[in-house]
Design goal:
With about 475 residues, the chain is mainly α. It has 21 helices and no strands. The protein has a domain of about 325 residues: Hydantoin permease. About 55% of the residues are buried. It is a multi-pass membrane protein.
Length: about 475
Amino acid sequence: MVTAATTSAPLIEKHTIGYVPPEDRHGKTRDLFTLWFGGNIAPLPIVTGALGVQMFHLNLVWGIVAILVGHLVGGVLMALHSAQGPQMGIPQMIQSRAQFGSLGALLVVLIAGIMYIGFFASNIVLAGKSLHGVVDSVPVPVGIVIGALGSGIIGIIGYRFIHVLNRIGTWVLGAGIVLGFGYIFTHVQTADFLTRGSFNISGWLATVSLAALWQIAFAPYVSDYSRYLPANVPVAATFWTTYLGTVLGSSLSFIFGAVAVLATPVGMDTMDAVKLATGSIGPLMLVLFLLSVISHNALNLYGAVLSLITLIQTFAYRWIPTAKSRAILSLIILAACCFAAVGASANFIGHFVDMVLVLLVVLVPWTAINLIDFYAIHKGKYDINSIFKVDGGIYGRYNPQALLAYAIGIVVQIPFMNTPLYVGPISEHINGADLSWLVGLLITSPLYYWLANRDTAYKRRLSTGKLANSI
């Protein structure tokens, strides 16, 4: 059914972090499938998926199994966050004030913003390399700027345009990657395609973790793209369309990277391997991936801007910026990222993956607290007015229980970490497998639930407020 809100929704988004009122709600839950399927058919997940056979030395079968397990598990958390969007009508990061308090949420918002900027910068490097691969006469730095400007235009236009492009991208990129698989499997250039690598428990666990963390990395902004849906859409519908789209799209890209690397000689760069493995259709694949990375990267710019606005609005609480403010901040971030990316080292992507692994150590406990608070404690009912108050309203400036659970959730991960900055003793004992994210989830979730339910003062304070999604 086409509603008045759907037909009258402006192309250029007027909202930023403010509550989306019922009259501005539009779209269908199936849009979430195309957004997360099309958005994940891109070079960065292809490069990441190849690590299972490149870095962790799995063979094709065990690499595929690890990829599927990781995405199936991580996708549950990601989709549960997505289902919050229609119920709340506000971006994910500002919603964190309801769990951590108006000031307590600042650290998580800052970390998420840095991660978005890191994603954006690394993707414009990939865009520059892809454009150079398609047109040799275009230098990589020029390609970086072109890719950044393309993503910037999409991000500035905003929510509706992002969804429109990904509806188109789902069909085009879906057909392209199926065609790519078909070509590679019929033109394998290596004799050890099926036998290169072997099963090893540390490599398998590491690949599972990499796939799961890919999904968890979306958690801080996934509900930003469901918040315009009508509030009465079923939670299950939001969950399943998001889950199926992100798991299917990400898994295909991860597996495509592993297949391309195994089908080409050892030691090749992943995207060079893709170009070689796809032979005569290689240029077409690079064009599709170039368009994909430009489109998908708009989400990272959009998320970075919303995080920055959330940080500023914490102190300038009367300021709910408009599309003009969002455009200005987008251009500032875009220019800074271009400057950094053009002068970046050759191993920029590798450094980026290292950075994300470090940041996810502090985002995993946030995911656990946010989901437990939303589904088990508040059951989706929040006072939206309080979330935008400088003193946090009924949620206060700080929530000691959430901050304590968050700190413990970080500390318990340390022995299981494997990052460039630190390798924990347990991770070292199991040959480098990083299980910190799993430990963080398993400890933080019940701990926060217990702390929140025993805090009678906090519950009394909540009972005095109107716990309803209204503004």
